[in-house]
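Figure-free illustration: sequence to structure, shown twice.
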Amino acid sequence: MPVLDLPFYSDTAAHASDVRDALGGLRIRAVSRTEEAASAWDRLRGCAAVPFSDPVWARAWYAAHRDAPNVSPLIVVGEAANGEPLFLLPLMQERRGPFTVLVWPGGTHSTYHCGLFSPACRALVTAETAQAFWARVFAALPPADALALYGLPAFEVAQRNPLAHLPLFQCGCTSYRMALTPDWEALYASKAHAKMRRNDRRCERHLAKLGTLAFRVARTREERRHMLDCLIAQKSARLEQLGLPNFFDKPHVRSFYEHLIDHGDRDGPNAVMLCALALDEEIIAVNLGMRQGTSYHGMVVSMTDGAAERYGPGRLLLRHFVEHLSREGFETLDFGVGDEPYKDIWSDEAVARCDVLVPLRARGWVFVSALKLFLKTKAKVKQSALLWPLFSRYRRFLGC
């Protein structure tokens, strides 16, 4: 595909002998079916820094959008001369108005995206070779106007992710995470002061008067589907109250979550986790996320708007869930993006995220420039004590 002759893509470095030697054996192919990239994906799975680059995630998104208009899978695989896979980029081609844009599968439903890059690839792509490397990658892609890859975390930039050599845009959404320890009682005492702990006990006593309160982790397909249905109903009601668009109204999104929970544990136990707080047989709060090793990445949480709401079922579920993760040997809990108050209480670290926004053709400059303007404006509105409450009040009518 044609690539603009920009300073970033300058071929000055590409003609240096060391760069030619380093990249000379690099082979790049772009495919549309996961089966064509299965071998490379399996061999690179250990290089996935987050679960959103795992084939479990991408396959669910691809399957859910199989018949969706204006979108199609695009998986980019890079290999060394000896056939050893060096990197894999699971992407989607999306038609946005007059533009064709390359994005991550899952988009804003994930917290981070990093691609999969082997240690050899990270060592290969340096400040001196990055221009030539990415020019080679872009030249192997089918025609597209721009690259819009959201959610590259700061810890991957520090680990020499080759995407960090592309033009980055600092996004306004920060993620939050906390370190877990096996000593739950000490952890709880360090995070929640005595008054908060007393309030938790008081709320549990009140709920116990309404029925039997129980923390549950979904173990079977039926339990997972039931919890997901409850989560969707609760989340949809909450979004309606806030005047926000309900992403579950999109059939492809709901299908994605169904694919994810049905197949998310086929390659390992609890790759996708669902847990809930139940009052007798009624689910009053749900938490859905993905496990990777000893880390848990939260995705969607919900709670009832019924009689139990006044006793903070979402807060109580979080306490039980953190206890469960702690006792099960998890080491990190990533809460995802958002500035909810409970994250100030529980989290230890704020993780900056940035977006990779690259025009690939002249018309792509129009798309990227407009996107940057929109993101900057949105960030300023969110930071304004005057504008954000007004926007929040009327966003139901604005539809955004």
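We now fold a second protein in the same way, so the two outputs can be compared directly.
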Amino acid sequence: MLKKFLGLALGLLIVLSLVPLNACGGEEVYHIGIAQLVTHPALDANRQGFIDALAEEDFVEGENVVYDYRNAENDGTLLNTIAQKFVQDKVDLILAIATSTAQACVQATKGTDIPVVFGSVTDPLFAGLIDSWENPGGNVTGISDWADVRQQVDLILEIVPDARRIGVLYNPGEPNSVIQVDDLKAVAGELGLTVVEGPVASTNEVLMAANSLVGRVDVIWVPTDNTVVASFGAAIRVCEENDIPIFAADVATVEGGAVAVAGIDYYRLGQECGQVAARILRGESPADIPAKKVDMTDLWVNPGAAQRMGISIPQSVMDRATKVIE
């Protein structure tokens, strides 16, 4: 009798193990891969905004969502490995944060039906990610962090009206940075300003590049460049030691010592990525969801940093600031 009972129990366990969770009345669980280029305040905010927005859309971690978060820390080879792993694991969706990340993920998912949502990509069209802003095509869409460079230059001139030579620290290997530097050159040409480039290939070169601009520029500007921002402290030291005001395109750099930034809210950008992902998880095709640019809403200022670089921020700018770093 005992043998018969044990046999029936074992058979029942085998049958149950073959029954999908959904068939037992459980809620479907979505597996989402998050690939991030590097640790960076703006990119971190993008990721958190995405997760929070999906939770608000009832896709909640620990309930019906499992996240696999991977950070390549600026290693291109590792980035490709991460993208390929997500494909092998057949995740339900990938959030790709930053341009090179999105390129790796889109390449890896070719021939699959895995959707990719990009965030913090300046020009997805130039990067070859989409067919057009209105009709992305394929399996990818997302939210761009394309900021208005003219608005940023206007802010620089409002704070440092005598500035005529703008130094720019950036990695020419980052497509997002090249686009912004091209915009800067166009704006500078219209305003009669000179752009002096300080290119870097890695974080180890930021200090040397910043020093190379000393005596040649009136101010320094940094685009949303992942390489430079990852070693932003080196640039800050050079600027404080030589009374060169430094500005940037990413508001989070103001906490790191930049004088001021007119830019976007990367947490809000992440939320918009999450809203797009929710639409896709509910059945919409990414090919039909327009890619868009997030609005510039923020003005962050750091009066202390300005003082350490030999200037002060006009009251007109302080009055408009959305955040003041004390």
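Summary for the second example: Confidence is low (pLDDT under 50) at residues 1-25.
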